[in-house]
C-alpha cells in the first residue's frame, strides 16, 4: 500500500477544500498595485511616477498611458545595463541574485534577464499551485511516491560579480526545495554537467536505478533523451525501464506538434500537462484534464496585458507600434491572438515577451500559446502565424502517415524573381515526396487561411518544400547555440539567416 502517497494525496485534496477560487480580474488589479508599491522608489518607479499612478482613480489605465512598451533591447539599453555597472534599485529594489541567459529562438547572443529573489519565490509558489492541481487529474496514490526527471539546462551556474548566471531551467532546478530533492532526478551531480550529450549519456547509464513517475522539460529534448535511454538499454519503449511513468509536464513550447512522435516512445498512455515557464517568469500552467489550455498565474508576481495581434500593430521586426492598444484581462475576447505583455517582480515593465496567445476560457483565465511575434509571416499578405503552420503540419502528418516535429520557413524571391515560401520539414519521409508534400501543404493553408489564399492568387507564386532529417534541426541548434535547456527552433527566418541555414543543410 502506498502509505506516503496516500498521505500526500490527502494533503493535496484537503488543501483544495480550504482554498477559495481565484477571481482573476481582481487578482490582477491587486498584483499591479503590489508591483507599483514595491517599485515606486526605484529609479524606474521614480522616473515614471509610480506613486501618482497608485493615487489615480484607475491605476491600470494610468499605467498603460504613462509607460511605453519595452522589449528586451529597449529594457536593457535604457535600464538593465545599469545593473551590470554596479547600480542598485534600478527597476526593482536591490539587485537580482540571478540573471537568466536566453538566446530564445533568434540568435547566438544571450539575453541577460534579471531574476530576483521575489521571482524565485513567485516561481516556487506557481510550482506549488501546479502540484496541488494534480488533484484534478485523478492520479493514483502511488504516483506521489515516484521520482521526477527534470531535464533542463545545467545547474552549474556561472558566478559573475555578486550574482549567478544560467538558463532559467537551471536556476529553478538549483532552487528546488530540500524536501523535494530525494524525488528529483537526475540528481545534482548529473544536473551540473554542462555538455548536454554527456549529461544525457549519464542519464541513460543510470536509468535503471530510478523509478520515474513523471518527466518535465521541452518536448524535443525530452524525446532525444528518451531515445537515448531506449537505445542504450535496447528497449522497445520507455515503459520497459520506467513502468510507472504516468505524467509528462511539457514546457517552453506547445506540445501539439510533438504529440505523435512522443507517444511513439511510450508503451502506454501518459498524462500530458502543459506549462509555460519563460526566462521572465512562470506564466501559466494547465490545471484540469478537460483541456490542454493553461491558466495564467494571475495572483503571483506578474501583471498581464494583451495587445491584439494584428498587422497594423506589429512592426516588421516583431515589435509593437506605439499606438497599439493594450487590454486588461477584463477586456479580452475569445478567438483573438494577442501579443503577451508582462510586468513582473523581476523589474520587467510592460515587457513584450515575444509570444502570442489566445484565450480559450476568459473566466478561468485559460490560454494557449499560438506563436511568436517575430514568427508572423506576412510577406505579400500571407498572414501566417505559427498556430496556422502547426495545424498544417498536423494535416500533413495524417495525409502522409508520418511525424513532423520540426520545421522552418522563409519567404523570398526565387530565381525567376517571384516570391515563394521555402519550407524545410523534419521528417523521415523519402525525399522524392517533396513536390507532393508541397502541393498538400499549399492546399491545406489555402483552405484554412483566407489571407493566404488571396496571397497565393496574387504575389505569392508558390511553395517549395524540402524534406530533411529532424536531426538536422537539432544539429543546427547545437551549432548556433547549444543543445537542451530552453533552446527552441526558429519557425520563421529572415533571408540572411535562411541563407546560413541552407548552407548548413547542404554541408550536413
From TrEMBL:
Keywords noted in UniProt: Coiled coil
Q: Does the keyword Protease apply?
A: no
Q: Which residues form a coiled coil?
A: 431-458
Domain GH3 C-terminal, residue spans: 389-496
* Record flagged with keyword Electron transport: no
Question: Where does the record place the GH3 middle domain?
Answer: 298-369
Give a single Pfam family match: GH3_C
In terms of PANTHER family, this protein maps to: GH3 DOMAIN-CONTAINING PROTEIN (PTHR31901)
Name assigned to this protein: GH3 auxin-responsive promoter family protein
- Origin species: Psychroserpens luteus
Amino acid at each position: 500500500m502506498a502509505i506516503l502517497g496516500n498521505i500526500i494525496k490527502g494533503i493535496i485534496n484537503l488543501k483544495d477544500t480550504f482554498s477559495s477560487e481565484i477571481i482573476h480580474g481582481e487578482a490582477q488589479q491587486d498584483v499591479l498595485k503590489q508591483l507599483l508599491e514595491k517599485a515606486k522608489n526605484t529609479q524606474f518607479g521614480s522616473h515614471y511616477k509610480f506613486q501618482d499612478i497608485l493615487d489615480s482613480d484607475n491605476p491600470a489605465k494610468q499605467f498603460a498611458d504613462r509607460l511605453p512598451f519595452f522589449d528586451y533591447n529597449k529594457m536593457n539599453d535604457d535600464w538593465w545595463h545599469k545593473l551590470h555597472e554596479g547600480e542598485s534599485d534600478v527597476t526593482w529594489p536591490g539587485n537580482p541574485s540571478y540573471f537568466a541567459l536566453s538566446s530564445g529562438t533568434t540568435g547566438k547572443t544571450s539575453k541577460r534577464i534579471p531574476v530576483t529573489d521575489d521571482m524565485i519565490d513567485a516561481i516556487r509558489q506557481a510550482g506549488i499551485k501546479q502540484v496541488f492541481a494534480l488533484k484534478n487529474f485523478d492520479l493514483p496514490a502511488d504516483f506521489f511516491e515516484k521520482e521526477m526527471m527534470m531535464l533542463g539546462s545545467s545547474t552549474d551556474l556561472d558566478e559573475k560579480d555578486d550574482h549567478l548566471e544560467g538558463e532559467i531551467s537551471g536556476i529553478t532546478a538549483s532552487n528546488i526545495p530540500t524536501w523535494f530533492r530525494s524525488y528529483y532526478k537526475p540528481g545534482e551531480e548529473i544536473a551540473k554537467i554542462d555538455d548536454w550529450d554527456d549529461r544525457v549519456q549519464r542519464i541513460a547509464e543510470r536509468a535503471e536505478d530510478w523509478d520515474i513517475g513523471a518527466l518535465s522539460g521541452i518536448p524535443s529534448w525530452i524525446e532525444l533523451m528518451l531515445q537515448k535511454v531506449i537505445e542504450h538499454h535496447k528497449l522497445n519503449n520507455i515503459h520497459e525501464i520506467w513502468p510507472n511513468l504516468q505524467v509528462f509536464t511539457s514546457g517552453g513550447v506547445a506540445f501539439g506538434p510533438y504529440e505523435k512522435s512522443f507517444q511513439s516512445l511510450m508503451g502506454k498512455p501518459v498524462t500530458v500537462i502543459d506549462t509555460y515557464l519563460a526566462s521572465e517568469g512562470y506564466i501559466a500552467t494547465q490545471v484540469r484534464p478537460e483541456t490542454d489550455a493553461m491558466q495564467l498565474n494571475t495572483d503571483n508576481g506578474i501583471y498581464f496585458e494583451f495587445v491584439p495581434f494584428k498587422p497594423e500593430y506589429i512592426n516588421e521586426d516583431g515589435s509593437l507600434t506605439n499606438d497599439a492598444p493594450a487590454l486588461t484581462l477584463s477586456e479580452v475576447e475569445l478567438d483573438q491572438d494577442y501579443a503577451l505583455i508582462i510586468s513582473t517582480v523581476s523589474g520587467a515593465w510592460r515587457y513584450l515577451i515575444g509570444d502570442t496567445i489566445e484565450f480559450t476560457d476568459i473566466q478561468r483565465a485559460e490560454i494557449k500559446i499560438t506563436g511568436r511575434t517575430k514568427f508572423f509571416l506576412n510577406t505579400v499578405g500571407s498572414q501566417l502565424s505559427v498556430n496556422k503552420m502547426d495545424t498544417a503540419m498536423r494535416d500533413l502528418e495524417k495525409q502522409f502517415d508520418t511525424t513532423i516535429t520540426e520545421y522552418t520557413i522563409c519567404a523570398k524571391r526565387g530565381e525567376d524573381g517571384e516570391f515563394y515560401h521555402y519550407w524545410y520539414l523534419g521528417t523521415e519521409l523519402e525525399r522524392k515526396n517533396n513536390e507532393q508534400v508541397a502541393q498538400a501543404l499549399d492546399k491545406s493553408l489555402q483552405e484554412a487561411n483566407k489571407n493566404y489564399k488571396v496571397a497565393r492568387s496574387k504575389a505569392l507564386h508558390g511553395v517549395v518544400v524540402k524534406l530533411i532529417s529532424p536531426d538536422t534541426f537539432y544539429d543546427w541548434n547545437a551549432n548556433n547555440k547549444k543543445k537542451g535547456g530552453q533552446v527552441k527552433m526558429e519557425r520563421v527566418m529572415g533571408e540572411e539567416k535562411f541563407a546560413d541555414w541552407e548552407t548548413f543543410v547542404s554541408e550536413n
